[in-house]
Design brief:
Layout (H helix, E strand, L loop, with lengths): L1 H15 L34 E4 L4 E3 L7 E7 L6 H15 L6 E7 L7 H11 L6 E5 L2 H11 L21 E3 L5 E4 L1
Parallel strand pairs: 3-4, 4-5
Antiparallel strand pairs: 1-2, 1-5, 3-6, 6-7
Length: 185
């Protein structure tokens, strides 16, 4: 429970105070297994451009998050372990920052072959997602997994491309207005 209070206070300080600068987390700050070996650890790192489909069937891109602070998580709708807890905590963040236009949320499904738009819409509705604040997204699996591994540094292991190639992570990623990782929780 302390972890989630930490996330809340971290977001609160990041969004509501202009005097606090969080450290920017780059590839060299992570364990080697979190960072794809093709990522240059010596250069500044920015979150990659993305194109996904949200729960309403709309295409969303990084431009929808331009000049915004946002929290990202990777999940799947049939998950019975950590995903429901993470979604409930994203809902708490949504409710707390509902009137704050500087903060948005993005949940990306790691099972796009199962989590189509209709499934995501039903899931979003059942979880109380407010469309203008929180996108529940799907897309091309390769693109999603590259985002998780090379852009957001959300996972601990690389898959083998087969049955073991599956992302399941309890991490939330806080992205600042400059498209840099400021925290991986």
């Amino acid at each position: 429970m302390k972890f989630y209070y930490f996330v809340f206070f971290l977001l609160l300080s990041c969004v509501e105070s202009s005097n606090i600068d969080l450290p920017i987390i780059g590839p060299s700050d992570f364990k080697d297994e979190l960072v794809d070996n093709k990522v240059n650890k010596e250069q500044s790192h920015f979150v990659s451009d993305f194109e996904l489909i949200n729960q309403n069937g709309d295409t969303i891109t990084n431009k929808d998050y331009e000049d915004k602070i946002y929290v990202v998580d990777f999940f799947f709708t049939r998950c019975g372990s950590i995903c429901p807890i993470m979604t409930n905590n994203m809902k708490k963040i949504q409710d707390k920052f509902l009137e704050n236009d500087n903060l948005m949320l993005l949940s990306i499904s790691v099972t796009p072959n199962i989590d189509n738009v209709a499934t995501l819409k039903k899931y979003a509705k059942s979880k109380g997602v407010i469309n203008s604040k929180w996108n529940i997204a799907t897309g091309n699996k390769k693109h999603i997994y590259e985002l998780a591994r090379k852009s957001y540094f959300a996972v601990f292991k690389k898959g083998d491309g087969g049955l073991q190639d599956f992302i399941h992570t309890p991490n939330f990623i806080l992205i600042d207005k400059k498209k840099t990782n400021t925290w991986n929780l």
